[in-house]
């Protein structure tokens, strides 16, 4: 039906803080698409039933966020390789054949943000990754995919970093959290995946003494946009890329699948989100 209003949303608990409805709403109105994108507060015990009902209610797809990103894999009929590798999904498609398709675009968003906002050559040298939580998994998987030769990984809780090394293999080495600054020597890509530096959290105090000016440094934290970690890296002469772009780029493939238009991630989009 050509006059059908397309419906999508984001499923999580809590969900009120999510910027996804703002972003998709902005793109829908910018491109004049007859669609809606809504926040859906869904508890774990209701997830399966909600996913079964959504296509019947006219939803063409959804984003998934905390705490459902891992659980949803077990409920999907089709899981993309990258979602399986990361062990989590953030983008769902309710296919017309009734099958639930689960993908993960976090790694794509991470890589696209660096590619579009820096002169970044992932193969040029080692990457250093701070943090070994859920976000780190997507970062590590995508760094390996784009050909970084080596990943140095450090996390306050060492066991989580060791588990990622066991899973992702020989290119990963684990560095004690107290020595995290040492792994920046010679690194060409440096990523903060921890929540340190976010509004209300302590600062990321890792020493940048060994950081060379040829590193591209990025922070997944985007509240504030310029974390003190990025400011310190810029003072060392590094290219720095803030984390807002990852949020914007990870959303683009879902929007295109559901609403039929590849949205632009440009300054107008950034400004809209920042001012909202
Ligand atoms: P996400 O999905 O955003 O990665 P997460 O899985 O809760 O969230 O991971 C949060 C990351 O921030 C972890 O690497 C965590 O370190 P631990 O594994 O030791 O918990 C890190 N982190 C959070 N608070 C921290 C702090 N005060 N000091 C050091 N690392 C911290």
TrEMBL record:
Gene Ontology molecular function terms on file: NADP binding; shikimate 3-dehydrogenase (NADP+) activity
Signal peptide location: none
Enzyme class: oxidoreductase
Active site: 69
SDH C-terminal domain: residues covered: 243-266
Residues annotated for shikimate binding in this entry: 18-20, 65, 90, 106, 222, 250
Protein's pathway: Metabolic intermediate biosynthesis; chorismate biosynthesis; chorismate from D-erythrose 4-phosphate and phosphoenolpyruvate: step 4/7
Ranges of residues in domain Quinate/shikimate 5-dehydrogenase/glutamyl-tRNA reductase: 127-195
Keywords per UniProt: Amino-acid biosynthesis, Aromatic amino acid biosynthesis, NADP, Oxidoreductase
UniProt GO cellular component terms: cytosol
EC number: 1.1.1.25
Organism domain of life: Bacteria
Residues annotated to bind NADP(+): 81, 131-135, 155-160, 220, 243
GO biological process entries: amino acid biosynthetic process; aromatic amino acid family biosynthetic process; chorismate biosynthetic process; shikimate metabolic process
Record CDD domains: NAD_bind_Shikimate_DH (cd01065)
Function: Involved in the biosynthesis of the chorismate, which leads to the biosynthesis of aromatic amino acids. Catalyzes the reversible NADPH linked reduction of 3-dehydroshikimate (DHSA) to yield shikimate (SA).
Family: Belongs to the shikimate dehydrogenase family.
Name recorded for this polypeptide: Shikimate dehydrogenase (NADP(+))
Native source species: Celeribacter halophilus
Lineage, top ranks: Bacteria, Pseudomonadati, Pseudomonadota, Alphaproteobacteria, Rhodobacterales
């Amino acid at each position: 039906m050509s006059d059908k209003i397309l419906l999508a949303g984001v499923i999580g608990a809590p969900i009120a803080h999510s910027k996804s409805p703002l972003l998709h709403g902005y793109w829908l109105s910018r491109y004049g698409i007859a669609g809606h994108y809504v926040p859906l507060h869904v508890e774990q015990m209701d997830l399966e039933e909600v996913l079964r009902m959504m296509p019947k209610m006219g939803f063409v797809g959804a984003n998934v966020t905390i705490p459902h990103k891992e659980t949803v894999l077990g409920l999907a009929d089709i899981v993309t390789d990258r979602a399986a590798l990361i062990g989590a999904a953030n983008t769902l498609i309710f296919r017309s054949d009734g099958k639930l398709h689960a993908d993960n675009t976090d790694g794509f968003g991470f890589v696209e943000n660096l590619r579009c906002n820096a002169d970044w050559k992932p193969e040029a040298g080692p990457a250093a990754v701070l943090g070994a939580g859920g976000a780190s998994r997507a970062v590590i998987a995508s760094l390996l995919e784009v050909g970084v030769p080596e990943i140095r990984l450090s996390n306050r809780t060492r066991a989580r970093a060791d588990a990622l090394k066991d899973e992702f293999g020989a290119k990963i080495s684990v560095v004690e959290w107290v020595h995290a600054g040492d792994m920046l020597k010679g690194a060409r890509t440096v990523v903060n995946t921890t929540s340190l530096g976010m509004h209300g959290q302590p600062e990321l105090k890792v020493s940048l003494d060994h950081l060379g000016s040829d590193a591209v440094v990025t922070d997944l934290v985007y509240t504030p946009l310029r974390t003190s970690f990025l400011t310190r890296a810029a003072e060392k002469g590094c290219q720095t890329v803030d984390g807002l772009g990852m949020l914007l780029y990870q959303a683009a493939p879902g929007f295109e699948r559901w609403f039929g238009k590849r949205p632009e991630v440009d300054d107008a989009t950034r400004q809209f989100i920042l001012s909202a």
